[in-house]
C-alpha cells in the first residue's frame, strides 16, 4: 500500500487540486481586477448575493446599459445582414474606447440608421404606389372605351377612388387624377386597382354577393411581381376594374377593397390624359429611383463603417457585461470601500492569479493592494480536468454520464483505449475500418479550417469526435485483421492456411470438412473457416468466450479503481467491506468461468462449460466426469461457491454497524480530536462556503448498503451477460456484410450485362456506406457507450460532482458561437 501511495500522479487520473480563496478588492481597482481574471480564466467566483434579485444588486445599472448596447449591436448586425453586407470577422485594431463614449457612439449610429430607414421606407412606399399606378394605367385602359359608348362621361368616376373625368387646366394631370370631386348620383361608374393574386377569387365572390350581381368584374394579371407597400415582399398581383351603378354600391365596393388590402388608383377615361398621366408617373418614378439609389448607397456606407468595428464592439460589450455580472456576485464590506469575493481556483493557478491582481492594482493606480488569501471550506470543490484536443472528446463521453466527484478516479483515462477497442470488437472489418480512417483523417487534416466555421449539428458532433473516430477506425482495422474480414471477404495475408482438402478434387470440402496439415495460422482466424460447415459454431464459440473475457476483465478493472479511490480517500471500511467481498464474489463465479475458458483453449478439451457452471450450483459435490478440466476442480468449485455465498453478507452487514459505532463513539467523547480552525461554528460566518454536517441516520445507511449489495450481486450476472452484445453485434455485422457481398455484388457480377453489374455495384456501395458504415457504426458506438456507463463505471464511479466553471472571456466567446 505504501508503494502505491508513492507512485507519481497521473495528470488525468485525478482532477486538479483546488483551493478556496477570498479576495478583498478596493473599489477603484475592482473592474480592472475582474477583467484581468477573466482574461486568465482560472477562478470560479461564488455568488455571495444569491439571496438578492438581479435588480437589487450593486451594478444593476451598468448591466442594463450593457444589455441596451447589446440590443443596438444586434440591430446593427440585422441591418447589415438584410443589406447583404459582410461585417468584419476579425476584430479591428483600434484605440481603447471608453464605455460611455461607445454608448454615445452607438446611440448616434442607431438614431441615424432609424432615420434613414424611415425615409427609405416612405420613399419606397411612394415608389411602389407609383409603380402600381403605372401598371393599373396600362392594364385597366384596355377595359375602358370611349365616352360615346356611355350616356355621360361624368358619371363614370368616383371621389377618392371613383374618379372624375374633368381635369382642370391649372393642376398637373397626376394631381388631378388623385383629387376627389363631387360624385354623380346616377350613371355607370368604375373602380380600378390592384390586388394580390391569391385574394382575387374571394375578392370577386365577395363583390358579387355584396352587390347582388349588379357589377361587371374584369381582371388581368400584372406582368411582374410587385413589392407590397405594407409587407415589403415581392408578390404576384392582379389588376382589376369593377363597373357598377349606384352610390350604395360604391360604398360597399370601397369597404371590400379596404378589407382585402386592394390598392385603388384613378384611371381617366380619355386616352390622351392616360398617356400624359403615364408619362408624368414615369418621370416621377425615375426621380424616385435616383433618390432611392443615393439613399441606399449612403445607408450601405454607414453600415459598412459600423460593420468594420462591429465584432470589436460586440466583444467589448459582452466582456463588460460579464465583468459587471461578476462584480454583482461580490459583497461590499462594512466601509463600502472594498468588494469581497470568494471562489475556487486550481492550486497551480495561484501564482498567476496573484500576478494578475498585482498588475490590476498597478494599472489602476490604487494606493491599496488587493488581498488574496486561502480559506478553509467544508463544501466539496469543483472538478477540473486539464484536457487537450485529443482527450477532450473522451472526457466529454464520461461527463455526459456525470461529472466526477472531486479527486475521484477518472474513467476517461481508460476510456481512451477501452471505448474504441470495444467498438472495434463489434465492428471488426478492416475494409470498413479503412473507410472510417479516411473520414477521420480528412476531419483532422481540415481541423483548422473546420474549427473556424459554423457547422451543422451532425457535422459538429462528428468533428468534435474526430480523434475518437480515429482510434475506432484503427482498432477496427486491428480487429478486422484478427477476424480476417475485408468487406466480409477473408484473405491469406499472413501466409497459407493450416488446412487443406482431403483430395485434389475438394468435393467434400464443405461436407466432410478439411484436414489440418501444418501449424496454426500465424495471426487471426484461418481464412479456410470461411464457408465451411463449422464456420458459425466456431466463430460463435470464439466471440462469445472472448466477450466474457473482456467483460470480466473490464469489471475487475472497475472494482480495482474503487480500491484506488478508497486508498486515496483513506477509507479503509470500503476496502475491507466493499472491495474485498466484491472481488471475491465476482471472481469466484465469473473469474472462474474465464479461467475455464482459457484452460479449455490451451488444452483443447471438449468439456461442456455450460454443464460445469450450471451443476456448480445445482450439484457441487457430483463427479464432473469428462467435463473435468484439471485435478482438484470439484474441490475448488466448492470453495469458490462458499466464498461467493460468504461475500454477500460480508458486503451487506458489517459496514452500517461499524459506521453507527464510530458515530456513537465520536459523540460520547471516546474519539475526540483536536478542534481545527475549519471546524468552528459555521453560523459565525454567514455567506461563507461552510455547510453543516448532516445527522447520521442508521436506517438510511443500512438501506443504502443493502441496495448497493443487491445491485452488485444481481449486476454481476446481468453485466456479464450484457457483454455478450460484443459477440452478437460482431456476428450481425459480419453476416450483414456477407449478405451484401454474396447476394448483391456477386449475384450481379454473375451476369454479363454491364447495366446489371453497375446497378449491383451501386446497391452494394449504397448499402455499405449507409447501412454498414453509418447505421452499424452508430449502433456499435451506442452499445460501447452503454458498456462503459453501466457495466464499467457503476463499479467505482460516483459521478455526483460539479464542473469547474471559471470566469473566462474565452468561455463567453465559445458560448456565443
TrEMBL record:
Segments passing through the bilayer: 421-444, 465-483, 546-567, 579-599, 635-653, 754-775
Locations listed in the record: Membrane
GO process annotations (BP): vacuolar acidification
Entry's Gene Ontology cellular component terms: vacuolar proton-transporting V-type ATPase, V0 domain
Entry superkingdom: Eukaryota
Membrane topology, record value: Multi-pass membrane protein
InterPro entries: V-ATPase_116kDa_su (IPR002490), V-type_ATPase_116kDa_su_euka (IPR026028)
Pfam families for this protein: V_ATPase_I
Coiled coil: 99-126
UniProt keyword list: Coiled coil, Hydrogen ion transport, Ion transport, Membrane, Transmembrane, Transmembrane helix, Transport
Family (UniProt): Belongs to the V-ATPase 116 kDa subunit family.
General function of this protein: Essential component of the vacuolar proton pump (V-ATPase), a multimeric enzyme that catalyzes the translocation of protons across the membranes. Required for assembly and activity of the V-ATPase.
Stated name of the protein: V-type proton ATPase subunit a
Source organism (scientific name): Deinandra increscens subsp. villosa
